[in-house]
Specification:
- By secondary structure, the chain is mainly alpha-helical.
- The protein has a two-stranded antiparallel sheet.
Length: 326
């Protein structure tokens, strides 16, 4: 019997999936069944503790100031900096830990149920949804500090971010999850061929695979003349940093080389590649690649260096949010 707290920890559909997986594993391998049962028992215990914390809105003092609507955006942005770890409300820090634990729990399920597609597929989808929820938090922070968003839109986004922290689910992300999923699925099916390093081949492949996403086509048309968006798109397409792409293009031009192959690209770089090699079989790789690019953007902002200042995912989701708010 699932108690009220457990129902909040995992959704009804998630609990049903866990039960089905446990029943299947119990028949197939009792050791795996015990492992999964214990993992989810601990996850529920952790969730019960996390969701027992009051909402951020019910916290009287944040950053030693009385929280009100006018200060909400500024206060939430304060939570985005790693150096402010000990100033972050316990609810926020605990929720992030819970999402990591939830990711590992459902990743375990997908690993143990590979022989059963009906169980494996939804378990892996939940793992991906957790990754996108963690990414969504970063996108919210990016939106809240963007001067292009109105104060009214920022207030709505701030409330959505608080709702994410309170429930562990991002309702806004649910509406845009398909777009992000489509973007990553298209990238997976179109690994970089490099060639002339203009990105046209990779972009055409991704656009072809996202033909059902009309917002993607409109996004490309509107942002085609924006250098920072183009640079962010190139990083996403090639899996290389802006600085590495410039380095490779410079070498091609210097030696009159017209095309470059996949194996040659890494040898052109003087040091270890900035971004990790992408592994489409591991949802963690999506988050790793996103965070590495986000951190590189943060550094460029800090030292006023050329290059993309936001990741492609941030730019694309912000575009969709603006459309939704207009």
């Amino acid at each position: 019997m699932v108690n009220m707290h457990s129902a909040q920890v995992l959704s009804k559909d998630e609990e049903i999936l866990v039960e089905k997986c446990e029943n299947w594993l119990k028949e197939k391998n009792n050791g795996d069944f015990i492992l999964v049962s214990e993992r989810f028992r601990r996850l529920r215990n952790l969730g019960n503790a996390v969701f027992d914390y009051p909402s951020i809105k019910d916290t009287k003092f944040v950053r030693d100031i009385l929280l009100n609507e006018n200060q909400l955006t500024e206060s939430l942005l304060f939570f985005s900096t790693a150096s402010h770890l000990l100033r972050i409300p316990a609810k926020v820090a605990a929720l992030r830990s819970f999402l990591v634990a939830k990711f590992h729990a459902f990743s375990l399920l997908s690993k143990l149920t590979k022989e059963n597609t009906g169980l494996y597929t939804p378990a892996k989808e939940i793992s991906f949804s957790v990754v996108f929820t963690l990414m969504a938090e970063n996108v919210y922070f990016s939106c809240l500090e963007d001067p292009g968003f109105s104060s009214n839109t920022k207030a709505k986004l701030a409330n959505d971010l608080i709702a994410l922290w309170d429930s562990g689910v991002d309702q806004r992300s649910i509406r845009h999850l398909m777009a992000l999923s489509s973007l990553w699925a298209a990238r997976d099916s179109a690994p970089p061929s490099f060639g002339t390093m203009d990105g046209n081949t990779e972009l055409l492949r991704i656009s072809f695979d996202m033909d059902s996403e009309t917002e993607w086509e409109d996004f490309l048309k509107e942002e085609s003349t924006n250098d920072k968006t183009r640079w962010a798109l190139e990083e996403f397409l090639f899996g290389l940093s802006y600085e590495e792409i410039l380095q490779i293009r410079s070498r091609l031009k210097r030696y009159g080389i017209t095309t470059v192959g996949h194996e040659e690209v890494r040898s052109y770089l003087d040091s270890k590649p900035v971004y990790s090699m992408f592994n489409d079989h591991d949802p963690r790789a999506i988050y790793d690649f996103f965070i590495e690019r986000r951190d590189a953007c943060t550094l460029r902002k800090r030292v006023n260096a050329p290059g993309p200042l936001h990741t492609l995912e941030e730019v694309y989701l912000k575009y969709r949010i603006i459309l939704e708010s207009s």
